[in-house]
Amino acid sequence: MFAWARSRGYVVQSPAEGIEKPSAEIARDRAPNNNELAEIWAATEKLDWPFEPAIKLLILTGQRREEVGQMRWSELHLDEVVWRLPGDRTKNGQPHDIHLSAEAVQILRTITAIEDCDFVFSTNGKTPISG
Description:
- With about 130 residues, the chain is of the alpha+beta class.
- The protein has a domain at about 35-120: hpI Integrase, Chain A (Orthogonal Bundle).
- The protein is built from five helices and three strands, in the order ααααβββα.
- The chain starts with a helix and ends in a 22-residue tail after the last helix.
């Protein structure tokens, strides 16, 4: 922005001149092992709604935190045991069908939908969970 402003004579010098670019982000490649997953699963028993079932579904589906946290009833087809994630909610922009295990379907069937709220996990009926 300051280079543009300098090229048009709005500023004499950019205040960012001489500052190094930030280093490239390093991709994470670690995932919990089976023992750690078992510990996490057991620890969810101490959590209140909506975090216990949400974390269990993270483990069972292997999906991203935001995708599970923003899960919508309209995306779930429990009779077909599939969660149809539309492209506008995926990292690569492509629709994605997530086939659900019996355990995942069982957890979802225990959740009571909030009236007039499409989010599976919401504490206020207006927004998905976060945090």
